[in-house]
Every structure is written in structure tokens, then in C-alpha cells.
Amino acid sequence: MKWLRMYRLLVLASLRSRMQYKFNFWFSSFMAALINLVEFAMLAIILLKFGHIKGWSLAEAGYLYAILTLSKAIYRTVASDVHHLEKYLVSGDLDSLLLRPVPVLLGLMSFNVSFRIGETIQGIAVLAVSMQALFAAGQLNWTSIPLTGMVILSGSLLLFGIGLLTATAGFWLTRIEELQNITEDAARTAVQYPLSIYPKWMQGLLLTVIPVAFANYVPSLYILRGEGGLWLLLSAFAAAMVVFGAGLFMWRVGISRYQSTGS
Q: Which UniProt keywords apply (predicted)?
């Protein structure tokens, strides 16, 4: 609880510093929402023309997209600079965090906090419209609302874990931007769409090596279609815990072997 209070104070300080430039704050939020909206519009155009992709309707695809968007928004709000660890390693700025009387990871998470307001609003809007259509089609009932909330939180933890695992590779590789492009950006973009559209080898990759499909696709099979049983939800929660736990473990190993650039 002490560290949570400390994190809250650091986040509020970061927010106050960002609000010194209000136009930049709101403009960047708007542009982030616009970029995500264009991405979803491309998918919507395809689905409106062909009706479905591999049996997935526009509402179902919108549900998958919104879940992942909100999970990403939470992760990148709570731990934005975990994704930018490379610049701390290259510049030697990680040294300043080592001198603070807080855990290094907590200090990194509260540094330059990025409030994803635009993505959050856009994700909520797409989710609301998609769920309304699915309710009308009889695919969802009221229990799906709390389950969806749990999946979003589970997905954010999973994305955090994947991001943390990738970031800790920087303690050995230093330059990790290209690796992040694969494990975070490319993999997350892939599962914005139904996993069934990809070849088997890629489905296996997104379920095992980079298990980002557990953030939205796997639990959605149960919530939207009743497939697989409750164990699909439990497997998604378990995957999030395992990946996040592995990320914390590798972080401890990496930080213990960190050597400053001396700058």
C-alpha cells in the first residue's frame, strides 16, 4: 500500500507537469483516437462489403478490437515508459531512478505518464456499439458485462507482462526497438482481428510464443459464442498472471546485472 500511495503521488506530479502544455496534451489525445478510429474504419469497410471474415461479424470484430484497445490504453497509461526503457539504458538516465528511494520499476512506471484519454474514449465507444448489436442479436446477456470488464483488466496485465519481458531484454541487448516492434506492436495489431483468419503457424505463434491472443480472442470465444467452456476465461486470466510474473522475475534478474553507461 505504501508503494501504491507513492505511485499515485508520482502520477499526479506527472499529470501536473503535462497539463502545463494543455494544447499539446489534448491534441495528442485527439490524434491518438483518430489513428485508432482510422484503423477500425478499414476493418469495418471490409466487413460491410463482405458481411463477415471467417464467420466473424462486424460487431464481433468490433468487440475484439475494443477489448484490445482498452487493454492497451490501461497498460500504456499505467506503465508508459516501460515501453521506452531503451532510451534510459542508452542515455544512462536509468541511474537516476536507481538513486530514488522507490523501486526502480515503480519509478519508471510513474515517469512521463501517458494518459490515453483519446484511445479510452474511442475504445469505449466501439465496445458500446458492438455490444449493443450483440445484445440485439441474442449473443450476449447481462453477465457478459462484468466478464468483459474482467477480460479488459486481464488483457492489460498480459500486455504489461509482454512489454516488461521485452523491455528487460534491453539489459542484455540494449537496443530493443525492433524486438518491441514484433512482440508488442505487430503482435497486438494482428490480434485486433479474429485469429481464425491467419494460417495455423501464426495462430500458434500468437497463442504460445507471444501469447497476446489471450488478451481478447481466447476469452471472446466463450463470451461471444459459448465455445470451449469457462476454462477459456480461466486460461486467459492464468496466461496474464504467468506472463506478468515472468516479466517481474526477469526484471529483477536484469536490474541486478545492469551496468551503467557512465554518462
A: Membrane, Transmembrane, Transmembrane helix
Instruction: Give me the number of domains the chain comprises.
Output: 1
Q: Report DSSP letters for 74-111, one per residue.
A: HHHHHSGGGTTHHHHHHHSTHHHHHTSSS-HHHHHHTT
Cα distance between the two ends of the chain: 34
74: CB partners within 8 A, 6+ apart: 116, 152, 153, 156
Q: Tally DSSP H helices, then E strands, for the chain.
A: 14, 0
pLDDT tens series, the chain, 263 aa? 566 676 666 666 666 666 666 666 666 666 666 766 777 676 667 666 665 677 788 889 889 999 999 999 999 888 888 888 888 888 888 888 888 777 888 878 877 777 777 788 888 988 999 999 999 988 998 999 999 999 999 999 999 999 999 999 999 988 898 898 899 888 888 898 888 888 999 999 999 999 999 999 999 999 998 888 889 999 999 999 999 999 999 999 999 888 776 55
The residue segments making up the domain with residue 61 are 21-256
56 forms beta bridges with: 53
In a domain, 9, yes or no: no
Is residue 1 a part of any domain in this protein? no
